[in-house]
Design a protein that fits this description.
Elements lengths: L3 H15 L8 H11 L6 H12 L8 H19 L8 E2 L2 E2 L1 H5 L1 H24 L5 H14 L5 H10 L7 H26 L4 H29 L4 H4 L5 H5 L1 H18 L8 H12 L3
Antiparallel strand pairs: 1-2
């Protein structure tokens, strides 16, 4: 029986409990965080964090703070991505984006609050005896690197740089490896760190995550093209896998990257069966 539903339930509860209690004067900040965290996402990143912890023989409950830290980072990135100075999106997952709901300045603060609190959650994991100090240092290194200039931020820079400018396939792959795959890689690595895995074992998860991240982004491009609406990518003149190859070839490319991701899981054997199922479901999703 799959643990996915149980893990999602645990993640939702942990995310709610991760929002700090604030004084009356600043309590609206918590409301802004909650609004974006409850945006209806698939929780792919925190789910993979728990799944990899379990696959390495760890206790997934010990990875919950780390899983929430990644989701806080991911959510902050979406808030900032929607801002008028970035993609200028009024809606996120069917509801008003943060800056349309709370104003641009407050949305900026909400994103900053999520970013900084993510690192607090790693210290919380130590305080609650989920991980020791040495593994907390490893977790901080992963999160700061893969969400920073050598990861998500670097990918976002490339994304902005090539608005209304033709981008080659290598540029597109580098952008998505950084912007999308890096945070998925971080999720997998943090789950293994919570399980006490070594860097060699984590390297197998990195291979999986990088392939899955590319498949995930290509699938997003396909779904947006099939939806037929003018997305921010279209409005901002951004190159996508569909604009380069067309829908059918892009679908095939997503399938190839998913296959590569699945092959990278061989090291974990049957312990990674749920992770295989998640990867296949992401490839076959319709939204």
């Amino acid at each position: 029986m799959s643990n996915v539903s149980l893990y999602i339930e645990k993640i939702e509860k942990a995310l709610e409990n991760s929002i700090p209690a604030l004084s009356e004067e600043i309590s609206p900040v918590a409301e802004m965080l909650r609004y974006s965290l409850e945006g209806g996402g698939k929780r792919v990143r925190p789910l993979l964090c728990l799944e990899f912890c379990a696959a390495a023989g760890g206790d997934p409950d010990k990875a919950l703070n780390l899983a929430c830290a990644v989701e806080f980072i991911h959510t902050y990135s979406l808030i900032h991505d929607d801002l008028p100075c970035m993609d200028n999106d009024d809606y996120r997952r069917g509801k008003l984006s943060s800056h349309k709901k709370f104003g641009e300045a407050n949305a900026l603060l909400a994103g900053d609050a999520l970013l900084t609190h993510a690192f607090f959650l790693i210290t919380k994991a130590v305080a609650e005896n989920d991980i020791d100090a040495e593994n907390a240092v490893r977790a901080v290194k992963e999160l700061s690197t893969l969400s920073g200039m050598k990861g998500m931020i670097g990918g976002q820079y490339i994304d902005l740089k090539y608005e209304n400018t033709p981008a080659s396939l290598p540029v597109l792959v580098e952008m998505d490896t950084l912007k999308t795959a890096a945070l998925i890689e971080c999720s997998c690595a943090l789950g293994l760190i919570a399980a006490g895995a070594d860097d060699i074992e984590i390297s197998y998860a990195r291979d999986f995550a990088r392939e899955l991240g590319l498949a995930f982004q290509i699938k997003d491009d396909v779904l947006e093209a099939q939806d037929g609406t003018d997305t921010s990518d279209v409005k901002n003149g951004k190159v996508t896998y569909v604009s380069l190859f067309g829908i059918e070839k892009a679908k095939n490319l997503a399938a190839i990257h998913t296959k590569n991701a699945l092959e990278a899981l061989n090291h974990f054997g049957s312990a990674a069966d749920e992770i295989r199922m998640i990867a296949e479901n992401l490839l076959n999703r319709t939204n």
